[in-house]
Amino acid sequence: MRINNKVSLCATVILGASLLSGATQAREIPPELSYLIDQYWSDAPSHRWECGFGFTAAPFLMPRCMTAENVMARLDDFQAIADDNQGNRAAGLEGYDASVDYVEDELRRMGYRVTRDPFDFNAFYENADGLLSALAPVPTAYEWNVDFNYLSQTEPGTVSALVEAVDLDLGEGNASTSGCEADDFAGFTPGNIALVQRGACAFQTKAENAAAAGAVGAIVFNQGNSPDRTGLINATLGSEYSGGIPVFFATYDRGVEWSQTEGLMLSMDADVIREVRTVDNVIAESRWGNPDNVVMLGAHLDSVFEGAGINDNGTGSAALLEMADLMKRARIHNKVRFAWWGAEEAGLVGSTLYVQNLPPEELDKIKVYLNFDMIGSPNFYYGIYDGDGSDFDLAGPAGSAATESLFEDYFALRGQPSEGSEISFRSDYAEFFLQDVAFGGLFTGAEVIKTEEQAAIYGGVAGDAFDPCYHAECDDVFNVSERAVEVNSDAIAFVTSLLARSTKVIDDEIAAAEEEETEPALRAFSASAAASQYDITHWGKYWIK
Length: 545
Fold this sequence. Notes:
The protein is an alpha/beta fold and about 550 residues long.
């Protein structure tokens, strides 16, 4: 449905007045006005002059200019790149390089100065399914993705050896620390395959301890301490894994079975590629704005090896390109920096190295980091990173609560539901968080199942994943909700334009936190200190422990 120009103008004036009168009033907009605002932001601009100049980056106009049609056109471009490059845009392969070229060319066409930020990483690709079989005492072939799978970043190789269990603690409610200490391998027979149990420490630690003890391969089986820790998971050894041996993950039941089989000899075949490759982050920033007060936006540009990665994360990458296009002439108060990250799917490598390599004085200039990873899931919900910790008990660095509130104001103005999204360190905000940079962002869901309550609120199918094609070949241009892209892209435009004009709400929260820390009785932990007490189970999209 389209609304006429007079109603558009009326909605614009009322919305602008509401923004100027204070953020709290955004949540007091009557439903009738929210409906008009939603229609105004959804409707295509009626005249070229509405979005043709963009000098002011007006928060009430930018969402109208950020059209889903333009974002979807860029998703078609990413799909074409994948189609021309073995069906994917994975970091270290031709499809990723072509994606970098595309983003750079588009930014230069807009008038930006573009920086390629190169880095090395351990690229990991699966050539074929793994093979696992028992040679003795009873020859048995085990089923791929039923009994076992790869740990991402395993070394390739084929080994056959006796299996030796390491410090297991079986049964429901167990507190396994199997393989976490070098002493767990006291008496281990070099040349055997180590059978270790999930629990307590990182998979990387277990595998490297096994290799140091002389194991020629390792199998980590699920912990089995609760019903949700028995099957297969997507796990990683981490991009820094240095054990040098092949490592599989297995179900709890198979692990128990193997631990109780005398004289068990297994054969493992890991048909993978793992080698150092060089790729680029792509960085650009606005011509105008205070360089000492930077609002940074980021999205990862790479896909997984299995597919084109159109929802994950063509959606975030395409929306950032459109945001850059809208901001190219804007006379704004604060510098806006855009980043397209490489090797996120290999463990947040590009964003992590970028943050770690920034001089402290440059990192201090970043007032807030906004992350957009999967904003068009077909069975979506509208998730906002839980900056204040009210939903998941882990608050972000000072300024993150204010950032979350700005996104909440947007959804309220538009009359759309939203909810907190857990800070799980599964995307590129992670290192910013650990370095105490305020952050925020949006997420529409991945492999988690949509509940009945969420289906009643957002529509869609309860009992299905938010993205049934997550990390799969079918994550293509047909795997995207255009409505979710519209609403979330507009949210990016709204919040970015607000912060480009003023970061006062974030400044005030940071100042209050610093003042509180000066009072010994009220001293608050920093976000990184809080994270150190939090059980970080993911780094990127994979389980790390």
